[in-house]
Amino acid sequence: MRLVFATAELSPVATVGGLAAASAGLVSELRRQGVDVDVVMPDYGGIALADPVSFDLDVPSWAGPASVTVGDHPVCGRLHLVDVPGMARPHPYLQPSGEGWPDNDARFFAFARAVAAFVERVRPDVVHLNDWHTGAALAALTDGPPSVLSIHNLAYQGHASVGWLDVLGPRAQHYEWWGGTNSLSGAIALADAVVAVSPNYVHEILTPAGGFGLHDALTQRGAALRGILNGIDTEVWDPAADPHLASPFDLDRIDARRANRSALLDRLEFPDDVVPLAAVVTRLTPQKGIDLLEPLIPVLDELPVRLALLGSGDADLAGRLHVAASNHSASFAFIEGYDETLSHLMFAGSDLFVMPSRFEPCGLTQMQAMRYGSIPVVTAVGGLVDTVPDVDAHPRSGRGIVARRAESVDLLAALFRASRRLGDRRRRATIQRRGMAVDWSWKQPAREYLGLYRELVAHG
Ligand code: ADP
Ligand code: GLC
After folding, report:
1. Is-same-fold flag (2-231+442-459; 251-437)?
2. What is the pLDDT of residues 423-460, one digit of tens each?
């Protein structure tokens, strides 16, 4: 089976959100399962490959000149880096001000066109696209192989002006959207299979509330739409062999976890006592609902629970969180930034892991938390529903605390319930062990994707 896998992000060479980790984790497991994967991603600049070989791609003038450099990366293996005009930038999507690059439509439409040219050249058995950045490739592929589109986040669709419909390719009319061009809606219409990154997200995106305007387009795809839950890379996320931790641990050595808690409390300048420590590791965007936690910060002392938040993104929210941390330094700590090392320690050293998401297509952090023995407190949305059964609703299998709605009052109730559950040490250990014992790896998801590729080839 030869697969072309096209993505705008890949850990660790281009990481903005979970798309990077999901792409890297799925590709390496597919390779382990014997699939010959050509990973095609933008050349943002500064990605060094061993034994690089370059060649030009045959694209129309608006998308060129386009070239591919293929070579070996020490962590990612064989990579195909696509260069098109304007692609090399210090950040894949954002200017230093935090605004998107004004030519993101042109950059990623050109990238998608180059992906189509690459597919025409290598003729794989299947092409697998991810999110809007790659969606326009199908406009140009009239006689392409079977195609899969994974939707990691319906909130980002690649809206652009109507003029793009004239150039994207012979099937561009499928991308027309309310007088403009929509990269994701066209790919949803044209892909042979559409995969949402969790089964529960499938249900949500078929509703007007969760579909971001695309629920009808998705409904029309019927059985071509399915959910496959993401995994996490259990080699990167292995508490028994994690170089970022103060003390390695696993299910058989769970006591060794305590040293990580002490190290984390020390780093956060909190006292090393029994007050439960809740952690958050996140992008700061409205999706993640961090603003819903703001009214709770002044009352944390009453719970009792301490909260530590590591996050980067929205500058206004970050500013407010800094102020809250200085006003409530005994119970709230805010570390601004994207810090991989600290994130691992936060998963390994916290008692609770909080995700107040308004929507969450899958979510990787709750799985990382459970693997590292931190009990999740989450809202009942997207993949959080698939991965975190509530301990009270499911006394024998519960793994966390689920807030009914993404509202501050429900989150307060959930934190209160969590701090009470943690008081019972035996119950807490049982819940913790359940989360750690689950196989969160990409093994099963990759099998499902491979099964899907085979179905498409068989019916192709
Ligand atoms: P999303 O893609 O919506 O941001 P996910 O939960 O799918 O959410 O994936 C986020 C990924 O990025 C996880 O691997 C998480 O550990 C990592 N991450 C998010 N924010 C930070 C941060 N501030 N510092 C370090 N890692 C982070
Ligand atoms: C998106 C979603 C997140 C998901 C990730 C990987 O960034 O916001 O929920 O886990 O993609 O699929």
Report:
1. yes
2. 888 999 999 999 999 999 999 999 999 999 999 999 87
CB 12 within 8 A of CB 137: no
Q: Residue 279 pLDDT more than 80?
A: yes
The backbone torsions φ and ψ at residue 411, rounded to the nearest 5 degrees and listed phi first, read -70, -35
Atom of ligand 1 nearest to the CA of 283: 20
- List phi, psi (to 5°) of 365: -65, -30
d(CA 445, CA 440): 9
CB contact at 8 A, 307 and 300? yes
pLDDT reported for residue 92: 96
Residue pair 33/446 in contact (Cβ under 8 Å)? The answer is: yes
pLDDT confidence of residue 74: 96
pLDDT of residue 97: 85
Please name the residue whose Cα sits nearest to atom 3 of ligand 2. Answer: 363
Three-state DSSP at 10 gives strand
CATH of domain 251-437: 3.40.50.2000
Q: What is the CA radius of gyration of the chain?
A: 22
- Say whether 70 sits in a helix, a strand or coil: strand
Ligand nearest to C-alpha 7: 2
Per-residue pLDDT reduced to its tens digit, 31-89 = 999 999 999 999 999 999 999 999 999 999 999 999 999 999 999 999 999 999 999 99
**Residue 281 Cα, ligand 1 centroid: separation in angstroms?**
7
Are 316 and 288 in contact, with CB atoms under 8 Å apart? no
Q: How far, in Å, is the centroid of ligand 2 from the Cα of 51?
A: 33
pLDDT the model gives residue 146: 98
Question: 323 burial class (0-12, 13-18, 19+ CB within 10 angstroms)?
Answer: exposed
The response to whether residue 12 sits with its C-beta less than 6 Å from ligand 1 reads no
Ligand nearest to the CA of 344: 1
What's the gap in Å between 15 CA and the centre of ligand 1?
9
Domain boundary assignment for the chain: 2-231+442-459, 251-437
Confidence category of residue 98, pLDDT binned at 50, 70, 90:
confident
Helix axes 408-423, 425-437, angle to 10 degrees: 110
The alpha carbon torsion through 336, 342, 344, 345 (nearest 10 deg) reads -120
pLDDT in tens, 1-25: 999 999 999 999 999 999 999 999 9
CATH 3.40.50.2000 fits 2-231+442-459, yes or no: yes
**Which residue type, as a one-letter code, is found at position 50?**
A
pLDDT grade, residue 421 (50/70/90)? confident
Within 10 angstroms of residue 103's Cβ, the number of other Cβ atoms is 14
